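re: that chain from earlier
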Amino acid sequence: MKYKNIINLSPVLLLIILTLSSGCTKYALPIKIFPAIQQNDVPNESMEKRFDESALSGPTAVESAIELSKKYAKLSEKTAKLKIENDLITKENNDIKDQFNHTRAQLVQTQKELEQANDLLIEMRIELNSWKTDIIGFRQEIRAADKAQLETLLKLLKILGGEAKNELTETQDPDFLTTSKNDKTIKNTQTQ
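^ sequence. v structure.
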């Protein structure tokens, strides 16, 4: 790489050496493009006032730097407070999200348990209704058996020569032994 640069520079060096050796010993003075400033010109007034302190009406660079550093400090504190507040709000938001997810899971579990409880309640109601029907059927059978037993006792009493009071049996409803007010209410609740 170095050799390539040397080879590229060699024609330029050769040209310079040939020019110097060919006899050009006179050097030309540089041409002035701008006219020379004359000493008789009056200096500009703004040039004189530029270092005058009364000309500076605003704060100095030090005062500006101090003021800007105070503003920077205030903004830095405000930024730190806002960052802390943002972190707290973010943490609170995450806590609320976690609580929401936990509550939602509990809600789903509670709904499942409620559905199971409803199914169990329906089964228990069906069993209770069948139990009531069975009890009513047994009651009627027991009453019919009691009625038959009483009739048999009355017949035995008549055979043995005892007197039976027929007043009670005649004044009472013949269905009194077979149905009661409770049976009618139970039948009504079952049909509903």
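The longest helix spans residues 61-159.
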